[in-house]
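MODEL INPUT / OUTPUT PAIR
PAIR INDEX: 1
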Amino acid sequence: MSESYSTTVSSWVFAIYQALNKQGIDGEGILRKCHLEIDDVQENNHRFALKQVRQLWMESVAATGNEAFGLQVVDCLDEKALNALTTAILVSKNIQEAIQRLLRYYQAVSSGFTLVVHKEDHLVMEFQNTPSGEFIAPEAVDAAFGIMVRDVRKLTDAKINPTIIELTKSVPNQAVDYTQFFKCPVHFNAKRNAISFPSLILDLEIPNANERLAAHLEQYLSDVLKTLDEQEISRKIYICLMQMLPSGTPTIVELASHMNMSERSLQRKLKEANTGFTEILSDLRMDLATRYLKEEKYQISEISYLLGFSSPSNFVRFFKNQTGYPPSQYSEGQ
């Protein structure tokens, strides 16, 4: 899974441009440094390569001298800018339904990360690398978490804040800005990029729910994803499986349901791609296992959980069958 397909919608790039201008910085000049044209940025639903957007974030931080610049961009990302996805979330029946919609359609905004949602002591929403190993800029994570917190506060009359923010980035000079914005502990140099909320949030009803509007927006978002679906089937399956693994080993029936298709249709697509469900699941687990072991951030028991194994011993057995040696000897086997 080495080829890159990752893109970000123009509304995010335009918000960065606006935030720069607000601070008296030549936003258009920064865009030109990244080979981005203002006409394209102002065009609705235009998409930009992840590499360009990462460079834009980097240039923006350098120009402002503010490592918390991502939080400033939140004010420029209103519901109108984010269009159908944010509106569909805000008119959902409850928070759980809103999160399900976010999981299904977040790639309509950006395909530069994989969103995984699971329950630990709290509800955890984690941003992971794409199957090709790419990832959005640290400032984009800040902005995305900022949008989530802003919308949760809006839906709950500011009664609920996150319980903890975990960021892999090093401690910024403006660390206090994060605590003031999120109103919860913020851990830097963390093992993952994750935001946690109290589990009770899932059952909260949304006052302005509108089932008809939500259905209309879902159709639009589905059409957007179909347009983007020039990706091969194996990559889409990788992303779905990455989202499902922390809840245990998925079945092909569960995967088909997650992808909004019948098992027969999924089997046919796998056959056309000359691959199979078991093969893709095994390849994904090995890709992720070697990535996590190489990063040296997780214990064997944590990797076992992230890969959906029921116990660490099952993970060790799987890894040894694939490589001939246990995961504890991974670095020696390289």
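PAIR INDEX: 2
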Amino acid sequence: MSRRTCVNCSSLAAAFCLVIPESARAACDGASVPSGVQTIDAGGLRRTFVVRAPSEPDAKGKAPVVIAFHPFGTGANYMVNRAPIGRFWPSALVLYPDGMPRDSSRPVPSWQNRAGELGDRDLTFFDAMVAWADQHACIDRARVFVMGYSNGAGLAHLLGCERASAVAAVAIQSGRLTCRPSSAKPVIMNHGLSDDTIPYDQAVEASKAWSTANGCSTPPKSGAPGCTQAQSCASAPVSLCTYPGGHEYDTSFTKTAADFLKTAKP
């Protein structure tokens, strides 16, 4: 169902009419948020994502949004099962997107990790998902967060760099930073000391880069189990969490990330 709304524009054009979907008009009036698999157009590509709707109202009124990106070769359901954000943040709208093959020679889902790579298809996908959420749910655009694991963490880092004005904070599991942060951003990283796929040193270097962008006097201490914070940060916090494992997803990080994002100040 749609409602036609007419806005007077000028004497030459008597009226310019917009067709506003009923779900968009009523999104902040208690309308149900669509759940399950959703399909949208993003830059001419058919993209899909799984929606986990909020199960309770948010104390601040509009719902925060968390977009969680899966690792190379898997799909949205991997993160649905590994990173149940809603269990620890019931008022959040959580989107779990599906990646796409890089090309015909590598027909498994993946994400771009550098600006300009793959025609920026995944930056465009992010933009389209946020627009969808804004239309179909009552969201707080100032609290849109990204989270990723491995290849998906690389995209989350990239969004923190390339979509700094749209991303409120970033959560990284076993990722590699391939961009140079130019804006302060709350960031939490989790990495295994024995990671042979993306070495732990990559997390240490990323924490230093974000600490510089955030105006911190000293980056987080590294090498010891647990989470440490950068010191005297002028603009936003940086946290580095360490565990003794390898490149596997650390399921305890889901709650740690949710708690960090809840307190992040846009």
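PAIR 2 NOTE: The domain at 35-263 is CATH 3.40.50.1820 (Rossmann fold).
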